[in-house]
Amino acid sequence: MKKAKSRIGLLIISMLITLMFFSIPSPIAADVSSATIPRQVVLTWQGSTQTTMTVTWRTDERLPNAKILYTSNPDADIEDYQEAFGSSETFEGTAAWINSVELTGLTPGTEYYVIIPHETKEERFKFRTAPENPEKVVFIAVSDLHLNGTDTKGRERRRTVMRAMAEENPDFVIMVGDLWYHNNGGINDSDSVNASVDGFFDDLHQALITSDGRRIPVVPVEGNHDGMKSFVQAGQTPAKENAPFFYNRFKLPSEEGCYVLQYGPDLTLIGLNSGHSADSQGNHTAWLEQTLEQYQSSEWIIPFHHAGPYPCYRSLNETYETRVRTNWVPLYEQYGVDLVISGHDHAYKRTYPIRNNQIDYENGIVYIGDGGSVARLREPDLSRWYIFEAAKEYNFFKLTMTQEEGYSMLYVEPVFPLNKALVATPFYLMSSNDMGDVMRTEKELTLSELNDEGVVFANSINLPTKGFRNTNITWHSSHPDIIAVDGTVNRPKLGEENVIVTLTATITKGEASVTKEFKVQVLESLGPEGIGMWVSKDTKEVLIKGNYEFLGSNEIALLVTDKTGNIKYVHQKSRDALGQFQFSFKIHEDTMGEEYILQIGARGREIPYETKFYLTTAATDITVRSVVFSNSLNGEPINRLLPDENTYIHVSMFNNTEEDIDALIVAALYDSNNRVIDIVMEKEDVAGNELGNAYLIIPPVDGIDLDECFIKLFIWDGVSSMKPLAERKLYNVTNLSE
Ligand SMILES: [Fe+2]
Ligand SMILES: [Fe+2]
How far is ligand 2, taken at its centre, from the CA of residue 143, in Å? Predict the structure, then answer.
């Protein structure tokens, strides 16, 4: 009793000094040494969890030189410790001096040993920084630890709960508000408030430490009892003014009531103020949306705030709850929040997965809470539709995030430290991690400009640089002159070969990386009117390509028959946006050496198949590459050959041998009775393994009705028998029904 009295005396003296000589150290303190004993050590983060740590402690006197010693070497002598300096401050309404040092430039994933110096009662402990890529993170969520300072039984309970938390060896503890009583009906006089706050920090100092002396950082948000007023209207009072104990005692990334901390790349903790010293609407909702958007690449996004949207005891329609549900829950659902932690109702609670205010097992969010870690418990209302499980029990949550190959797991266990016989249902959430994001990006990465055969007709290919959840994609092209890494396509010129370009996507996120290859066939440029045929001697594959002016229809059909008219292959497809089309098929091994007739036409036309190609699979020395029939020398697009005008024929052919060949190109005009009316021919020297071109002109023939006549094209390589290669009918315009 005597001791307690003299302590109160000292507090009053300190308060007077504070008011009168704000920053001058007390000259009349009888025992300087005891007044500077470091007490109530608490660790928080203001910046990076990997490279910083803020150490805050209380003294009864101002420290002229707030300082700590620290090292990462467990065997270091005290003279080898580094020094770091901070501030010593107080504020209105307390006798406490709050000393704070922020350590920066620390090494990630490292234990540091700390000494807060004092002549007789120095404070020693250790802490650890967050690893760069933690494979396992254990953390605790706890809420409503508020007690009167004189509640000795309650404080014993609080230390028991805190010791149980420390036994889990967590990396940090999230505290979701109501940590002491600043306002509580009649007891908001200064002594009671200070006793309640000191009681909290004394218990934390004593109990929230592991058996091997590691202090556990806390990640707190403010509850309705932590400030002068439980509810502040927007813009009324700055947060630090309404809740001076909270914002002076805890050094946080922001003094506005909302902040974000990242623990490794995959765990995003968003601390929010559910309307106590900051407005849960307006600016804070805008900040929340911006933050959720900014951290979309994080695997786990966990907001936490004192009052929750789905309470187990209070009415769903109370102000805090309604505002959180109205302003924040839609953003949680929109931005894929994984789990939400709240307090305030003083009972253990877990909801069903919820989305759009109803149970949604597929896409819902689970809300856990509701406080009752130490403060007086209340009876939850189990009849509510969203309650999966609830109990009037002292509780906290242990959360374990682990990284596996391709996915990350968050395991959530309710713990009842005062009733260990009670078991609630743990659950886990799954999310893809960096490797999973990379794998998903790889799976989803397609190039929509390629057709089934891997051919590109477009002038550019969209090569995305971002994949699932901000996964990076970089591109390499085997022929950057044909397809640049920005996706621009530059076709080989007419007469050059088609080119197969390998596009390689390297997909990375964090340490995870895979590559995906696309083989893209870029066809040589075609003239404005044309159709071409490519035959592979080795694979027996046939490729037909053309552009739409040739047939003037959206639906292009290909019919392959043998000489007796049996169908070997039939297909129909739409032209693409550029009006080009392509068919490819393979000649069956059993029918190699047979002669096929390829007829290409347009659906819906009166005469569906207008042009024939003749394909001899026992490849001749020369194969035709493309044939353009036109009524003009410059090959203007036409749909039909007019019988009373010149027919121009442009043949592109390929020499399949090493030797030069004198090819003879013959075009013959037949009447409807299959009698030859006219023949034109041209000789062309085609070099080995090269393309050659021939141009022929068939003039109109006087005195003969050329309607229903047709032209057959032959190439003779000097060895094979002369077989027709292409055939095209001439029509009278009036016969067409376009
Ligand atoms: Fe509470
Ligand atoms: Fe509360």
Answer: 9
